[in-house]
Design goal:
The complex is a heterodimer. Chain A starts with a helix and ends in a 6-residue tail after the last helix. Chain A has a single domain, classed as MetI-like fold. Chain A is built from 12 helices and no strands. Chain A is 80% helix and 0% strand. Chain B contains 9 helices and no strands. Chain B is 80% helix and 0% strand. Chain B has helices at residues 7-39, 44-59, 62-83, 94-119, 123-131, 136-166, 178-189, 192-221, 223-226. The chains are: A mainly alpha, B mainly alpha. Chain A: It is a multi-pass membrane protein.
Chain lengths: 244, 230
């Protein structure tokens, strides 16, 4: 067995095409999933039982089953029904790309909703009471106090979730998509150099997750500025000129 | 459970999934303990190796790990074997590749769980055990490990859930687990939704089972809940 760098270099452009597909999958479904997760989390924290039950069942199903089953259910499963095949949705559900996006969105929405619910419940009660005392309506309170605070709290955990999504996106290769893993598999089918190409693919995944982790650190410092705030007296101890 | 005559097939797949998950759990726990000991060891070589292991494995998709070990593993094994004069073709079974990939992944995550649990045990316990004349190995197995078990259980329970769901990935390289059998049943009945939904519900059942097992173990590991007295 000899390690062949040339095969990596030669096929690297195709792997980079895969990076682009992977990034699309992660970010499109990440954003759509977040949009879906917020109402789910709000419903989950509601005081009405019937409003809590629906998101509970949804989250339970999507967190309790493998992502691969969810992808197959949507991609292969939807074709079982005549009604789906004749509906206006069929051009979308026929495409592996959109099926992957739908599956990842539904999956990440379930996980993120739980994270956001935890964050909402972690908001100090006094802040919510203060908002009530100001006479804010429920909607205004949610918009101005609950959600901004929850996002600050949830951010580190959401960063982890996005990394898990990046890793999960490799499953798109099982329904013929040419993401990083899919591209690697097609290259290997021709060259039969699994070690080299999978190694290169793994490095690309590592690189993307490293960039994501860095990005989230920056975002967290910005959103949670109040954690790093230094009062005038602290700053003046470092340098009196800064306190002005 | 009949499912158009495919119920037995799905059940046999379920058994394969359970075997795969439990075997990987055993090896994964060993990898995790070794990783945690390496991370906490005094030797910087061991610490660096452990850090490399956790960073790399946690950063790449499990599917990529499964594929690499299944397709690349036999090349590596053959290269090693040819050094010893054995030149026959060696093939890795899907089950072996699955166990290897899943336990390596489980080990990387559980390294962190074990590390945190070991660090949570007060230093005084090491010192008093040493003062009683125990060797470091004895301290670790008699004093530290029994307590680590209790502290690590919730984290390990979560990781086992992830492991259970990741077993589905091994169907991609042809292991006849739940997913594969659902696919087989789909092929002749043309009812993909029915069978993948059945597969999903089986996984859901396994998840519920493992959650209740973890809760039970956590209760057993907690002296106060067991009703023990100090």
């Amino acid at each position: 067995m000899n390690w062949n760098w040339d095969v990596i270099i030669e096929h690297f452009p195709r792997l980079l095409d895969g990076v682009w597909v992977t990034l699309q999958l992660v970010f499109v479904s990440g954003i759509a999933g977040l949009l879906l997760a917020v109402p789910l989390a709000l419903m989950r924290t509601s005081s009405r039982v019937w409003l809590r039950a629906l998101p509970f069942a949804y989250i339970f199903f999507f967190r309790g089953t493998p992502l691969l089953v969810q992808i197959f259910l949507i991609y292969y499963g939807s074709s079982q029904f005549e009604a789906v095949r004749e509906s206006a949705l069929w051009p979308i559900l026929r495409e592996p790309y959109w099926c992957a996006i739908i599956a990842f969105t539904l999956n990440t929405a379930a996980y993120s909703a739980e994270l956001i619910r935890g964050a909402i419940q972690a908001i100090p009660k006094g802040e919510l009471e203060a908002a009530d005392a100001f006479g804010m309506s429920h909607a205004l309170k949610v918009r101005r106090i609950v959600l901004p605070r929850a996002f600050g709290i949830v951010l580190p955990a959401y960063g982890n979730e996005l990394i898990l999504m990046l890793k999960g996106s490799s499953l798109a290769s099982t329904i013929t998509l040419l993401d990083i893993t899919g591209a690697a598999r097609t290259i290997i089918a021709r060259t039969y150099t699994p070690l080299e190409i999978f190694f290169a693919a793994g490095m690309l995944y590592l690189l993307i997750s490293a960039i994501m982790i860095g990005g989230f650190r920056v975002l967290e410092r910005r959103l949670n500025r109040h954690h790093h705030y230094r009062g005038p007296e602290q700053v003046s101890r470092v340098d009196p000129r800064l306190a002005e | 459970m009949d499912l158009l005559g495919f119920g037995d097939l799905l059940l046999s797949g379920t058994w394969v999934t359970i075997k795969l998950a439990l075997t990987s759990l055993c090896f994964g726990l060993i990898f995790g303990l070794i990783g945690a000991s390496a991370k906490l060891s005094g030797s910087w070589i061991a610490r660096t190796l452990a850090t490399l292991y956790t960073t790399f494995v946690r950063g790449i998709p499990e599917l990529l790990l499964v594929l690499t070990i299944y397709f690349g593993g036999s090349m590596v094994l053959m290269a090693i074997a040819s050094n010893f004069g054995y030149d026959e073709y060696i093939e890795i079974s899907a089950f072996a590749a699955g166990v290897a990939a899943l336990s390596i992944a489980f080990g990387a995550y559980s390294t962190e769980v074990f590390r945190a649990a070991i660090q949570a045990i007060p230093k005084g316990q090491w010192e008093s055990a040493q003062a009683l004349g125990m060797t470091p190995l004895k301290v670790f197995f008699r004093i530290i490990l029994p307590q680590v078990w209790r502290l690590a259980l919730p984290g390990l329970g979560n990781l086992f859930q992830v492991l259970l769901k990741d077993t589905a990935l091994v169907s991609v390289v042809g292991l006849s687990d739940i997913m594969r059998q659902a696919y087989v049943a789909t092929g002749s009945t043309k009812q993909p939704f029915t069978f993948y939904m059945a597969a999903a519900l089986i996984y859901l059942g396994l998840t519920i089972l493992s959650t209740s097992m973890t809760t039970w173990l956590e209760r057993r590991a907690d002296p106060a809940a067991r009703g023990a007295r100090a």
